[in-house]
Design brief:
By secondary structure, the protein is mostly helical. It has one domain. The chain is 81% helix and 0% strand. It contains four helices and no strands. It has helices at residues 2-21, 32-51, 55-75, 83-113. Helix 1 (2-21) runs antiparallel to helix 2 (32-51) and helix 3 packs antiparallel against helix 4 (83-113).
């Protein structure tokens, strides 16, 4: 199961990078910041589950990815870098890790009651 999660994680990461660096000509029906939030919400949960990273490690890996993407976009003439995108990324990571923590804690409590 862990190998499947790792494969899903890497496919998701490649998809994030691809969509972050290609030219876009179509506006999405949702806000760009919501897209960033959801993207990193999912990313942090996949990273945590696939590689069992610590919460702080996960936060810093995810933060590095968000800053890296925006730094590269700064130098691409057809993309733009925004501090708001990094903020949305970080909020997605924190929310994803919090949700992961709450679900794991709830699962452990239910398992201990049995």
């Amino acid at each position: 199961m862990r190998n499947i999660l790792k494969a899903v994680f890497w496919i998701y990461l490649i998809l994030i990078l691809f969509l972050s660096f290609v030219p876009i000509s179509v506006e999405t029906p949702t806000s760009d910041k919501i897209n960033h939030f959801v993207e990193f919400f999912i990313f942090s949960i996949l990273l945590k589950e696939a590689y069992k990273t610590s919460y702080w490690g996960n936060f810093f890996y995810s933060a590095f990815l968000g800053v890296f993407i925006e730094a590269v976009q700064y130098f691409l003439p057809y993309r733009s870098a925004e501090y708001g995108d990094v903020t949305a990324d970080l909020l997605g990571v924190v929310s994803g890790l919090f949700m992961y923590f709450v679900i794991k804690l709830t699962y452990m409590e239910l398992k201990n009651k049995e």
